[in-house]
């Protein structure tokens, strides 16, 4: 056990020492901004259209920008993509939640986002509803 621990530590140290490190002070102008463009179509609800959402600081023309930013902060967990699609092997109920589609593009937490949402089965409906109020409730 001790031998394995020493070997793992040595391998980790070797890997870290091989990676270049450059110290760089981040100025306020370079601070990453969480900025998303959300396009909703065929929702038959009030959320139809294209909206810009900025968080940290909050801004844009999203109708519920404060609540949307709070929800994104809530679902953002280290090591997990809050915009991840439904797993291809997921067991989903065969129900149709409407023809609404949404596309979210931009940057969140310094990472690019390009996610599509539908309501074509139970898993997709739950994924959409889990992003409310970023995405609108549909009729």
Would you kindly provide a written description of the structure presented here, covering whatever features stand out?
Strands 3-2-1-4-5 form a five-stranded antiparallel β-sheet, with helices on one face. It has helices spanning 2-18, 65-75, 122-129; strands spanning 34-41, 49-55, 59-60, 101-108, 111-118. Helices cover 26% and strands 24% of the residues. It contains three helices and five strands; from the N terminus they run αβββαββα. It has one domain: Subtilisin Inhibitor (2-Layer Sandwich), CATH 3.30.350. The chain has 139 residues and is α+β, with helices and mostly antiparallel strands.
Termini separation: 58 Å
Q: Note the total helix count.
A: 3
Low-confidence segments, given as residue ranges, are 1-28
- Say how many strands there are: 5
Query: Percent range for helical residues?
Result: 25-40%
Query: What is the name of the CATH topology?
Result: Subtilisin Inhibitor
How would you concisely characterize the structure shown here?
This protein has 139 residues and is an alpha+beta fold. The protein has three helices and five strands, in the order H-E-E-E-H-E-E-H.
What are the key terms here?
single chain, 139 residues, alpha+beta, Subtilisin Inhibitor, five-stranded antiparallel beta sheet, 26% helix
Summarize the helices and strands and which ones pair or pack.
Elements: H1 2-18, E1 34-41, E2 49-55, E3 59-60, H2 65-75, E4 101-108, E5 111-118, H3 122-129
Antiparallel strand pairs: 1-2, 1-4, 2-3, 4-5
């Amino acid at each position: 056990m001790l031998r394995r621990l020493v070997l793992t530590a040595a391998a980790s140290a070797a890997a870290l020492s091989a990676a270049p490190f450059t110290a760089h002070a981040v100025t306020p102008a370079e601070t990453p901004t969480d900025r998303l463009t959300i396009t909703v179509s065929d929702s038959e609800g009030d959320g139809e259209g294209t909206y810009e959402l900025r968080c940290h600081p909050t801004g844009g023309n999203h109708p519920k920008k404060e609540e949307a930013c709070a929800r994104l902060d809530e679902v953002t967990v280290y090591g997990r993509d809050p915009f991840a699609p439904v797993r291809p092997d997921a067991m989903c109920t065969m129900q149709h939640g409407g023809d609404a589609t949404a596309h979210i593009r931009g940057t969140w937490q310094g990472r690019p986002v390009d996610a599509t949402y539908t309501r074509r089965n139970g898993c997709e409906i739950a994924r959409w509803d889990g992003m409310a109020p970023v995405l609108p409730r549909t009729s």
